[in-house]
Every structure is written in structure tokens, then in C-alpha cells.
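Hallway conversation turned thread

IA: we were arguing at lunch whether anyone had actually written out MFS transporter end to end. Turns out nobody had. So, for the record, here is the sequence (502 residues) and right after it the C-alpha cells. Reply here if something looks off.
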Amino acid sequence: MTSPLNPSAPQERWTPRLWGTLLVLCTAMFLDALDVSMVGVALPSIGTELDLSTSSLQWIVSGYILGYGGLLLLGGRAADLLGRRRVFLVALGVFAVASVLGGLVDSGPLLIASRFIKGLSAAFTAPAGLSIITTTFAEGPVRNRALSIYTTCAATGFSMGLVLSGLLTEASWRYTMLLPAPIALLALLAGLRLIPRSERQEAGGGYDVPGAVTGTLSMLLLVFTVVQAPEAGWASARTLLSFLAVAALLALFVRIELRSPSPLVRLGVLRSGSQVRAQLGAMAFFGSYVGFQFLVTQYMQSLLGWSALQTALAFLPAGALVALSATGIGSVIDRFGTPRLIVLGFASMVLGYALFLRADLDPQYAAVILPSMLLIGAACALVFPSLNIQATNGVADHEQGMVSGLLNTSIQVGGALFLAIVTAVVTAGGTEQDTPQQVLDSFRPGLVVVTLVAAAGLLLTLPGLRTRRPAHSVVVARSAPEASTGTADPAKTAAEPVAARE
């Protein structure tokens, strides 16, 4: 159980089971991130073998985002109500099956369907996994350490996906689809033994079916509209009507949640300034990075003539920096707090994006590309763990799944929204007869948009610096019985100190 100790007291050592549980959860998050980035390099080979058009290829990426971003709120609440362990393991099994199907299908529609199912399963594993961590490890230094390792695995998976895809695609694109299956299966078997059982939360007011329907439909339609907007036109009647329908569904969702005795999302959590900054920061952080990666990948392969593997290796310094920070970033967060690190990380990200604006048809790896990647890698190492810690700190155990789903929704919607905007800016007025210099010039406005999005994230998170931090204290991990039920003695809970909070 948790207990305040003298700051100089040694921190309780983690048991092998705690390490095993964290490893299983990190593996699932690593696979989620890996799957997002790994498919990009394989798209040309997929299109050639399955005879798919460019618009069809887009849906191999968008299908995953649609399932992931559209069902995260439902996935987070399902983890709270049905049991985090149960939801996590079932969804991980579905992810493994969908990975096998994706590697064996021989038609575009079936491949897109398998990608949607994988995104759907990730929408349940991501919030369930995060809430298992936040209810197993006590708030404070121990949880910060666990979350820093967990989120670093996600960032590393996203970066390593490019490298692995470059290697596997040389043999066959099908290996990029099949690779997650055996890893997910091993994680599932280990999770059955290691992840502590959790009691289901009693939904005294029912399961908020109207909220689940309207919330899920609004997220699905929002992601679908954003993904399709560049093709249909941002000012087209179809796009405008879709956004109007999204607004109507969201208004209805809010009305339902305010009146529901057991809401899918308790809107009161958004009264917290730190929570709002975490959600908006997550949108700006992931949205800017996805847009940057899309543009830089096109720049390296289309304009510089680099191979898929060379492009992947160019991103490797950022991923390596994130991986190396895994074990140390938790103590840094304990010392300086999440607001300072988020601001510092966003500032590093803005500098990295701005530096890449100097890129031209001469690669300039040492002067432009490498420094940009290192700055962006440092930003990922600082911002991503800090956002997760800030969003989940101070939240009751029975709402951790809900908040985790909300944070992951912000990440995915931000990625879909800003990628669509960047794509629209780049393709505006472009022609197939553009010279390499004209193509590069068309990329620059997109890079400017990416930089401005990161700068907006910096400005949004600056007010957090004004919040006072409480005195530091050491908190140890919860005992297995308490962690498994997700409950604690109210008297002890009230007396627990909080570390590394705003």
C-alpha cells in the first residue's frame, strides 16, 4: 500500500511480478505505436501487389486511425466498467488475430478491414493498459517511473516502426503485417499470469448506452471527415455537412453526459486547468509530429532519392534518444514537475521543426537533418511521458480508464486533424509537372504549419508554469491486493502526499 516516507528513505524495490506486468503493458503499447508507423513505408509495395489506387492506399492508414480514434472513449470506459485486465487481454487477442489476417489477405478491402479491426482493438488496449499502470503504481515517483518507461516504449515503437518496415519490406510487405502477431500472442500469455485481477466497477446508473452511441459516432464521424476532407475539399458541401453533423452529435453527447447518472465521460474532469492543458498539448504534440514525419518521409524518398531503409535510419537518432531516456526521465519529472518539462519539450520541438525549414535539395545531414532529429527526439522524451502523468495525476482509480481514453482520443484526433491540414496545404495548387525545387517549395508551407502547431502547444502549456508544486515526498508501489481491486483505505488515501504534480 502507499505510504509517505522521509524524502531520504530508499524507494521500495519492485517485485518481479510488477516488472513483468509493466513489460506486458509496454509491449502492447509498443505494438500499437509500431503498427501506426510501420505500414507507411510498405504502402508502395502493397499498392503494386494488390493493384490499389492512391486513395485506396490512404485507407490502409486511415482505417486504423478510424477504429483507434473513434472508439477510444468507449474503450476507456469499458475498462472501468468491465474490468481492466479482462478488456486488455481480450483486445490484445483480437489484435493478434487481426495481424495474422492482415498478412494473409489478397484484396484491398479485406486488408483495410483488418486494419480497422486492429485500430479498434488498440482503442481498448491503450486506455486499459494505461489505467492498469495508474491503478497498480501509486501516484508519485513510482508511478512517474512506470509511466516514463511505458510512454517511452510507445515513442520508441513509433520510431522503430520505420526502421523495421524498411528492413521487412525488402523481403515482403506481408511481414510488416505479420510481425506484431507472435509478439502480441506472447504478451497475451504472459499477461494471463502476471496482470493482477481487477474488480468490475458497479455501474449503479446503468452503462450510459446513449452516451456510448453518440460519443462513438461523433468521434468516428470526426476522424472520417478529417481524413476525407483533403480529397473532398475542405469547403465542399459534403465536408461542411459532416462537420455540422459532428457538432450536433457532440452537443447531444454533452447533454447526455450532463444528465447521465453514470456518464461515459464525466465532464467535470475538464474543469481542471492541468487536465485541459494535457489534452490540448497531446493534440498539438502528436499532430505536429505526424505531419512532420509525413513531409520528411516524402522529402527524403521523393526528392533526395533515399531508399526506405535510408529514410528510416535518418529518423533513428530521435528514436534512440527517446529509448535511452526511458529509465531516467521519471526522476527528472519528480525533480522539475511536468509543466516545466512540457514547456521545455515543446520549445525543443519548435526549434527542431524551424531548423528543418532550411532543408533543400542538398541533404545537409549534419547541419540540418541530424540536429532537427535530436531536438525532436529530446522533445518526445520530455513531452510524452509528462503529458500522460499530468493527465492521470489526481484522478480517482475508478476514472483512470476514462481519462486514459480521453487522452488517447486527443492524441489520435490531433494526429488525424493536423495531418489532413498539412496534406491540404502541401497539395494546394500542385501539379504532376512540378520540378523537384517546386515540390520542395510546396513542402515548406506544410513545415510552417507543423511549426506553428508546435508553437501553439507551447503557448497553451505556458500557464502551467504559474502553478505551485507541493513539497516532494516518496511514494512506494501499492501492494498486490490493493492494486488488483483498485481500492484503498479512504483515510490512507486522504493522507497520501502527491509528488510531481502541478
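OS: looked through it. The mean pLDDT is 81.
IA: good, adding that to the notes. The radius of gyration is 22 Å.
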